Amino acid sequence: MIQNNSLPQPLTKVLLAPLAGISSLDYRLLNRRFGCKFACLEMISARSLSYQSKKTLEMMKTNQEDRPLGLQLLGENPKYILKALEYLDEYPFDILDFNAACPIKKVTNHGKGAALLKEPKKLSSLLKLMVKNSSKPVTLKMRLGWDSPKDAVETAQMAEDSGISALCVHGRTRFQKYQLPLDYESIKKIKKSISIPLIASGEIWGGQTAKKMFEETGCDAITVARGSLGNPWIFKEIESFLDRGDIIARPKIEEISQAIKTHMDLMIEHQGEKNAIIKFRKFFIWYTKGLRNIKPLRAEASLARKRQDIIYLNEKLIAQAADSS
Ligand SMILES: Cc1cc2nc3c(=O)[nH]c(=O)nc-3n(C[C@H](O)[C@H](O)[C@H](O)COP(=O)(O)O)c2cc1C
Hints:
Layout: E1 14-16, H1 25-33, E2 39-40, E3 44-45, H2 46-50, H3 54-59, E4 69-74, H4 78-88, E5 95-100, H5 105-108, H6 120-133, E6 138-143, H7 152-161, E7 166-170, H8 184-193, E8 198-201, H9 207-217, E9 221-224, H10 234-244, H11 253-271, H12 273-287, H13 295-301, H14 307-324
Parallel strand pairs: 1-9, 2-4, 3-4, 4-5, 5-6, 6-7, 7-8, 8-9
The site of flavin mononucleotide (FMN) has 22 residues, from loops.
């Protein structure tokens, strides 16, 4: 096996985060078409992959347009992780990430995700195992700690010493879940204490929050997560704000409507109409956030079953905007 510890160069400054239940192939392709330069799969259970579970293989669908690509493993058992790595040898991706960040009980009760922050020695040995047995550069996604950020720097240094190529930090502890404010100070302390690239995560909603993250933490890159929901324009918006200080105007209703159609059709192409439309209902809600008099259309969207239902709502969206202008 030829090992490769170097990250794709140049390291893009803005990445699409792993998003369980969201960042499937269609979602990644949509965001790439709107300007995203690096995307991650949603987290993949090492155990399910080691069993070649049909659902997991489905989640791992990719194609040539879907590069560069990060794949994140979730697990705590070295046996399953090793087996998963064997299968990944043939899989086309660029970075192997490991999850020590997921806060949900279903995951942490089994010693996975953020629960690994309570067991730094175990986390270190899993990272070493992955670095040794993966042909791809290994990265770690961590929260600041389990219930306190006090050991965050030590954990980050341990991860670096284990041979990882970059570290992604979500600036909250597991206990803080999505509580505000985000702890920029702890991310900054981590950045100062390591020499590998630091990717920061949390509260990236557009150009200004992206700039704030870079300035307050000194991070090398950021991930966009919830900020991309119903807003694939966010990548261009951030880029233009960071590079030129330009604030891009919010998309017009026609652009929103076109994005809704493009996104829905990508989902139908990759998941079939029935599954796609049920999943697309929530995206319709996200795309129409903040629009005036939108409640009735959103209520109708939550019952959509066919492509035609969304097309009809999309036409109403345009007509409604024309009426109120
Ligand atoms: C629906 C959803 C699914 C997520 N799935 C994952 C995941 O699979 N792996 C992971 O490391 N983080 C996951 N996250 C966390 C995000 O990647 C990100 O770290 C977090 O949302 C903070 O960023 P934000 O405030 O910009 O949304 C998920 C977040 C959300 C909202």
